[in-house]
Amino acid sequence: MNGAEIMLRSLVSSGIDVCFTNPGTSEMHAVAALDRVPEMRGVLGLFEGVVTGAADGYARIAGKPAATLLHLGPGLANGLANIHNARRAASPMVNIVGDHALEHRKFDAPLTSDIEALARPMSAWVRTSRSVNQIAVDTAEAVRIARSAPGRIATLVLPADTSWSLPDDDTHEVETPSEIEGPIPVKADVVESVAAILKSDGETSALMLGGAALLEPALTFAGRIQAATECRLFSPTFNARTTRGAGHVRVEKLPYFGEAVVSLLHKTTQLILAGAPSPVSFFAYPDKPSDLVPAHCQVYEAATSSHDLTSFLSDLADELDAPSEPGRRAGAQRPPLMSGDLNPGTIAAALGHLLPEHAIVVDEGATSSFALGPMTEGAPSHDWLDLTGGSIGQALPVSTGAAIAAPDRKVVCLSGDGGAMYTIQSLWTQARENLDIVTVIFANRAYAILNVELGRVGVEHDTSRAKELFSLDRPELNFAEMAQSMGVPAKRVETTEAFNEVFAERMKAPGPFLIEAMIDPIQLG
Amino acid sequence: MNGAEIMLRSLVSSGIDVCFTNPGTSEMHAVAALDRVPEMRGVLGLFEGVVTGAADGYARIAGKPAATLLHLGPGLANGLANIHNARRAASPMVNIVGDHALEHRKFDAPLTSDIEALARPMSAWVRTSRSVNQIAVDTAEAVRIARSAPGRIATLVLPADTSWSLPDDDTHEVETPSEIEGPIPVKADVVESVAAILKSDGETSALMLGGAALLEPALTFAGRIQAATECRLFSPTFNARTTRGAGHVRVEKLPYFGEAVVSLLHKTTQLILAGAPSPVSFFAYPDKPSDLVPAHCQVYEAATSSHDLTSFLSDLADELDAPSEPGRRAGAQRPPLMSGDLNPGTIAAALGHLLPEHAIVVDEGATSSFALGPMTEGAPSHDWLDLTGGSIGQALPVSTGAAIAAPDRKVVCLSGDGGAMYTIQSLWTQARENLDIVTVIFANRAYAILNVELGRVGVEHDTSRAKELFSLDRPELNFAEMAQSMGVPAKRVETTEAFNEVFAERMKAPGPFLIEAMIDPIQLG
Questions:
Q1: pLDDT tops 70 at residue A521
Q2: pLDDT score of A524 more than 70
Q3: How far is CA A274 from CA A133, A206, A214, in A?
Q4: Cβ pair A280, A292 in contact under 8 A
Q5: Whole-number Å distance between alpha carbons of A31 and A240
Q6: N or C end of chain A, less CB within 10 A?
Q7: Pairing mode, if any, of strands A242-244 and A382-386?
Q8: B485 vs A390, A428, A482: nearest CB
Q9: Chain B CB contacts of A101 below 8 Å
Q10: Do B61 and B18 touch, CB atoms closer than 8 A?
Q11: By the 8 A CB rule, do B217 and B224 touch?
Q12: Is A503 part of the contact surface with chain B (CB cutoff 8 Å)?
């Protein structure tokens, strides 16, 4: 058993059985070892941003890490943007990055670069496995770090000679991680303090929920707290995973633009953080605040995303003698299908009308997403996955990984046209693995958000050349044709009726499909 | 004039007038400033790997840097692989990376990351411009570094507040770089020593040429040295730019695989390096040497790529009293067109037969490239651009930038199907800018090189699952359809006759076009 096989078997023994990859020569022994470790499923992506984004989506749904196998520094670099998004999602991930053999590094061959330095900004842990006698321990440690609460990025650099060598003896074969750091319990006195804060007179309180607090059963506990205290329940704008829909306690998502957040928080005087950061502006703007908490509002950080949020909310509900059931759960209520001109609102209505139970919605619709929340809150129970790190090009890969994690669930991927082009190669993997994903491209032929932002930054002169750089209509992209060229059947639709028909059909039929929804950019403000 | 405009005007004053970009909100003021600085041409790419690869191609042909404008850490990360290739090509490049406003960083908003740390492994110089009063000086310094011999990567991080602020007074506006470090002269005693080495009896000598030594007039001087000494002229396998074809001195390119290099260098006893590194294996293999220089061969590093190679070779020719003309220049000799089954050999013949004068060939054909060199060496004078850093996905972007640098020259882009998928979004920019590029996709439906490598690493067990990860035929990609979906007209061809016809036609017609050449993987060894 060489180093590569020890690495794979250690991953499998640690519960990791999916490896998203785009390998090269330096990973050859790891790829070859796949034939000796059939428990590990290898999934090929044609670009590393697909690979790392898929690992993120997999982790969000499976609740455990996938591995990635990447080709030296440039392969890792290509995957970094979606590792950034995964890091912001607190998704566990184990990246295995092949490197030159240790003795080969000094020759500075063309593909040589400082892989550890590239990995560090986006990783919680980086190590180079310098010997085959160390690879089992190093792999187990990577898994331990990745699985530690709330979920982290571990990057293990695997020199080719570590991969191809044989260990000195069998004491160096196959390790599993010991002592994974689970979520940190929130202390009883913190629970008591928060309860006291929520009960104080004359205050308007809100809980800001993040991480596992947006999943069941935590949501139910939050709803019981709400029933006891009338507090509002908020979440950040972008979350790794939120369970929502009919029967679930409704959480108000903060809007994207800072002014709207300030307005929403206007009446709140006490904001309790439970797994979420204090609200800040996504970008800074001249003469606008970055900190979006009103001056009259006191912020209490009760628990971070590393805490045991489910137990915390349960304990808090008990401490408050909360009713056994939430006062308010979203009712089952679907909007009617709409007709006429196709726009983000009519598409949102179709989603709300047709979304099947247990669907996974991956949302990177940007300016086209605004109507989705309200239109789908009464749809059957589903999970909602957001763009967590702001790096567009995440929806298609995350959908790919989510579908691998949950082959029995329908995945609906919503993407702007600009974002979709970043990692469009995802479609090929979806076709190859026959994944049950319906991708909707909001084809407004622009980086529409940037036109909005251009108005917000106070530029007063002529901006025709600037706007040209936000426009995708010269030439017009044809996503339906593009999808078909990668093996995914697709249809371009121009009316609401046509969208409704094909979307309804695809909610019932399995397999990958792309709908190119030709819309005008949404008008804001 | 705000910081963004000062930055743009400083670039223009320093001779940089093309900016490849994929901007976002943090770069909004820089984009807006484009309307006030019409001398700067903004070229949009739909993915940052396109942007940085285009800047590389531009620099190789224009001989001066372009700027890139990138969106925070993830935008830079997406561009790093082609920055790696550019660094290996010694291409000058000035990357401007927007960041959050300095005061906004502490809030750790979702897009926050350590941009300097990400930039450092691939950059010769990294700086954050922390004040609008500093931006002119910082921009000029970035240009100075980039233009210093032989060409470097300079990355300037531009916080949004530096961009939107006004300077204290007009002494802080617009700077140009002072004292660009030109190529280092090679000392006379080195020239004399090398001449003596080349003249020593009983030795078989070779010059290993790299960088500017592969361009005219250096090539002519090298040919004169060859005429005087009978030395062989070699170059590395992968070079930023080589001028070749009829009338030029022929340089033997080292083959890719180490065994073949060892065999080629077999008789050489003295190897003089002039702008090229000593030959090393691209990858390491068990029980194979990384250093490919035979034990009996002495290596002399006469000049690095930072030296004035043209003057060095001229001085060396004079020192040797070399004839005024090279003994051997490649004759004008085109191969006949071939017919029958389409394969890399028949495609290479078509290139040799049809390549127009002053064409720029960008070669990332990998296993399909082997026949190209001999078939084109008698074609009219042209430039050949290789994949310099081994990170595939470079040919389409580099072609894009090369065509912007030389709108009057035909660009022929040769790419494997696997590599093309990395940065396929390049086609859209080619359509948008109406660039004169004919892209040939060697569609063998595999990462063919990896199948070869799998055989080379000595794996003996069944490798069917491994090979599945190198296969691109499930589903089959349709590049012609894909190109059309991005606005580039295209044709799929299955026979040599069909290839010849469409390639001949496109050598005469301007504008972007893609030919999908359906071939079988080349059989090696």
A1: no
A2: no
A3: 43, 10, 10
A4: yes
A5: 30
A6: C
A7: antiparallel
A8: A482
A9: 284, 290
A10: no
A11: no
A12: no
pLDDT in tens, B372-430: 999 999 999 999 999 999 999 999 999 999 999 999 999 999 999 999 999 999 999 99
What is the percent of chain B with per-residue pLDDT over 70, rounded to a whole number? 99
The CB density around residue A465, as the number of other CB atoms within 10 Å, is 18
pLDDT at A525 over 70: no
**pLDDT reported for residue A181:** 86
B277 secondary structure, DSSP code: P
pLDDT confidence bin for A453, thresholds 50/70/90: confident
Task: Please tell me if residue B117 touches chain A, with a CB cutoff of 8 Å.
Answer: yes
Q: Which residues contact A8 (CB under 8 A, 6 or more apart)?
A: A19, A30, A33, A34, A36, A37, A40
In which band, very low, low, confident or very high, does the pLDDT at B451 lie, cut at 50, 70 and 90? confident
Please state, in angstroms and rounded to a whole number, the distance separating the CA atoms of residues A40 and B266. 44
- How far apart are the C-alpha atoms of B118 and A76, rounded to whole Å? 12
Mean pLDDT confidence for A379-393 = 98
Average pLDDT over residues A103-124: 97
Sheet holding A252-253, edge to edge: A252-253, A232-235, A205-209, A270-274, A298-303
Q: CA of A313: how far to CAs of A210, A320, A322, in Å?
A: 12, 10, 11
Query: What residues are paired with B362 via a beta bridge?
Result: B385, B413
Provide the whole-model pTM.
0.98
Give the pair of three-digit tokens for residue B457.
Answer: 């690493």
**β A125-128/B513-518 pair status:** unpaired
> Over the stretch A177-197, which tens digit does the pLDDT of each residue have?
988 889 999 999 999 999 999
Residues from chain B that touch A108, judged by Cβ atoms under 8 A, are 277, 280
Q: With contact defined as beta carbons under 8 Å apart, do A60 and A93 qualify? A: no
As a whole number of angstroms, the distance between CA A416 and CA A430 comes to: 18
Q: Which residue of A has its CA nearest to B115?
A: A121
Question: Which of residues B348 and A522 earns the better pLDDT score?
Answer: B348
Query: In this predicted structure, what is the pLDDT of residue B157?
Result: 98
| Alpha-carbon gap, residue A261 to B238, rounded angstroms | 54
Q: B252 is written with which tokens?
A: 């033997």
What's the distance, CA B333 to chain centroid? Answer: 27
pLDDT tens digits, B64-114? 999 999 999 999 999 999 999 999 999 999 999 999 999 999 999 999 999
What number is the average pLDDT over the span B239-251? 98
**CA-CA distance, B383 to B380, in Å (whole number)?**
10
Reported as type and span, the H/E element at residue A360 is strand A360-364
CA dist list (Å): B46 to A75, A421, A434, B23: 19, 7, 27, 10
Scan residues 473-502 of A and list those with Cβ closer than 8 Å to B.
474-482, 484-487
Dist. CA A87–CA A73, nearest whole Å:
19
| B82, B394 Cβ separation under 8 angstroms | yes
Q: Please determine, for residue B171, whether its predicted confidence score (pLDDT) is greater than 90.
A: no
Q: B465 vs A35: CB contact, 8 Å cut-off?
A: yes
Give the DSSP per-residue string, A415-456: EEHHHHGGGTTHHHHHHHTT--EEEEEEE-SB-HHHHHHHHH
Cβ(B235)–Cβ(B214) below 8 Å: yes
The side-by-side arrangement of strands in the sheet containing B252-253 is B252-253, B232-235, B205-209, B270-274, B298-303
d(CA B487, CA B326): 46
Cβ–Cβ below 8 Å for A469 and B42: yes
CB-based contacts of B189: which residues, under 8 Å, 6+ apart?
Answer: none
Question: In this complex, is the C-beta atom of A201 within 8 Å of any C-beta atom belonging to chain B?
Answer: no
**Contact yes or no for A32 and B466 at CB 8 A:** yes
Single out the residue of B35, B46, B39, B54 nearest to residue B95, CA to CA: B54
Query: Using an 8 Å Cβ cutoff, are A399 and A368 in contact?
Result: no
